[in-house]
Design a protein that fits this description.
By secondary structure, the chain is mainly alpha-helical. The protein folds into 2 domains: about 5-90 and about 395-520, no CATH class; about 90-385, no CATH class. The chain has helices spanning about 10-20, 25-45, 55-60, 65-85, 90-115, 115-135, 140-155, 160-175, 180-195, 200-215, 220-225, 230-245, 250-265, 275-280, 295-320, 325-335, 340-360, 365-380, 380-400, 405-410, 420-435, 440-455, 460-475, 480-490, 495-520.
Length: about 525
């Protein structure tokens, strides 16, 4: 593998900085991807495999060759960038996730057209009116708490969690003039934290597989013991509750709250929501009776299909790898071995088909209208699908350049035993922030952190927790994280506004976590 050294940091860092500064997230990501592949192309053209040989590679070129190098480099780098974007679809998991992101639009438009959203709002309004009579002004707090609770309870898969929270609560948040940024924050900060703390899902299975590779005979028990030290997801979940009940927002989120309350603007004037207005402004069909079940049934089917499909897709692996297991042990192992991308895609397709049957029985829609609405829903989700494509592509170029491995190797050289968990947390955070993937960070850091902790006689469980918590923290802070992107989509929020408003809250939880690892390590 080629050693790009510090150059491996440039593409993701520049893309993230540009996205936050300019709010042109598509252009910024594309530029970062292009920059990375230009660097890869340059190394190939010079015939070198490390940054240390960079100077000697140029030294072998004549003056004429150096003049011709730049246009050829830019041309070849651009072609490689196009190929990299196409290659995203060679990974079946990426393709399924992008298809899931597009098909979600059909489900969203169906439940609005059927009157399901309006019916759900009426039911919630009746519940909220009771609280309002007892404690005036409490509705905003109660509905935010319900959204947090929903996200925390759907721990089977983070994508399904954020989608459910956004779909169910966006209309009610809008009516109560709660900014879209707050909904995105609640959805994002309740999904991944609960998924990693409650390990009966794909997250837990992935972590157990990594621990098994490091020689742990009982990876489940090891993971559970480390969870007691996994401070960041705990603080992230509790932090959401604190800001909901205390009403003490600050920074960009406080400004968003004031804008929504005083001006009635759910988003900033220059905001570009991650979902087309055509999908959020669909009116129920005239003459129908709004029913909450037209929303609750399809969404519930989607949620419950997720563990069913995880078990189904992982059952063969369970029989092959652990034939001695039976009953619930085999079921949980199968769920852990299942395909997350297959499960979310089948879950949303099943929910769409169930909604079609449900609305057909009620004679709300005819077949032609259902097909038209499906296509309209998919078209409305194209910005999200494109952003997911670019997020996968920049992750691929980071992997090609060894961004995560470089950061981990640099940190490994100046660690002391007492500082191992603290540094592991910081490094995991930076890798996840730069690459936009918590799972990729887990894969890199567990393989490095566990042997390091064992060799240096540091607390292994604390170190494992630091690697996992740092991955989630960096993922929360990164604008190229798929979970953050889906949270922006589900809440119909501007993506960069979501990142900016969530970042201070994530930094508080992350800062406290880092301080706790430092204190525990030193004392």
């Amino acid at each position: 593998m080629q050693d790009f050294g510090f150059l491996s940091l440039i593409p993701p860092v520049i893309a993230i900085v540009l996205a936050i500064r300019t709010k042109q997230v598509f252009v910024s990501l594309l530029f970062g991807i292009w920059l990375g592949w230009v660097a890869v192309t340059l190394f190939k053209m010079l015939g070198i495999d490390s940054i240390g040989a960079f100077g000697s590679g140029f030294g072998q070129l004549s003056a004429g060759e150096m003049i011709l190098l730049l246009p050829k480099l830019l041309w070849e780098g651009t072609l490689n960038t196009i190929d990299a974007l196409v290659d995203v679809f060679q990974d079946k998991g990426n393709t399924r996730t992008i298809m899931f992101s597009a098909l979600v639009g059909a489900l969203i438009i169906f439940i609005q057209r059927s009157g399901g959203v309006e019916g759900f709002i009426k039911v919630v309004n009746r519940v909220l009116s009771k609280y309002e009579n007892k404690r005036p002004g409490s509705n905003r707090v109660i509905i935010q708490f319900f959204a947090w609770l929903t996200g925390a309870l759907i721990f089977v898969e983070s994508s399904i969690s954020v989608l459910t929270v956004g779909t169910l609560y966006r209309p009610i948040f809008d009516r109560l003039k709660i900014p879209r940024e707050k909904l995105a924050y609640i959805a994002d900060s309740s999904s991944a934290p609960s998924s990693i703390l409650i390990p009966f899902n794909g997250w837990g299975a992935f972590i157990m597989a990594l621990l098994l590779n490091e020689g742990f005979n009982d990876p489940f028990a090891t993971m559970v013991r480390s969870m007691g030290y996994n401070f960041y997801p705990m603080l992230a979940l509790l932090g959401v509750l604190f800001f909901i009940f205390s009403k003490k927002d600050f920074g960009p989120m406080a400004r968003a709250e004031r804008r929504a309350r005083e001006e009635g603007k759910l988003m900033a004037d220059d905001a570009v929501p991650m979902i087309a207005d055509e999908l959020t402004d669909v009116k129920p069909r005239e003459g129908i009776t709004p029913r909450a079940m037209n929303m609750i049934i399809p969404v519930s089917v989607m949620v419950f299909m997720m563990p069913i499909m995880l078990a189904y897709t992982g059952w063969g692996a369970a029989l092959e790898n652990r034939p001695e297991l039976s009953g619930l042990d085999r079921l949980f192992y199968a769920i852990g071995q299942g395909s997350g991308s297959t499960s979310v895609l089948v879950a949303v397709i099943t929910a769409i088909l169930v909604s079609m049957a449900l609305y057909g029985i009620q004679k709300i829609m005819k077949a032609k209208e259902m097909v038209d609405l499906t296509l309209k829903g998919i078209s409305g989700m194209m910005p999200l699908a494109l952003l997911m494509l670019m997020a996968f592509a920049i992750g691929a170029v980071c992997k090609e350049m060894g961004t995560g491995q470089y950061v981990a190797d640099v940190a490994k050289g100046w660690l002391s035993p007492n500082l191992v968990p603290f540094i592991v947390f910081l490094v995991s955070c930076f890798i996840a922030f730069s690459t936009g993937t918590s799972w990729g960070t887990f894969a890199i850091m567990i393989a490095i952190a566990v042997p390091m902790a064992q060799t240096m006689e540091a607390n292994v469980y604390l170190t494992i927790a630091a690697a996992l918590g740092g991955g989630v923290f960096g993922d929360h802070c990164s604008p190229i994280s798929d979970t953050s992107i889906l949270s922006s989509m589900a809440s119909a929020s501007d993506h960069i506004d979501h990142v900016k408003t969530q970042l201070p809250y994530a930094m508080i939880a992350g800062g406290i976590t880092a301080l706790m690892y430092l204190i525990i390590g030193l004392f």
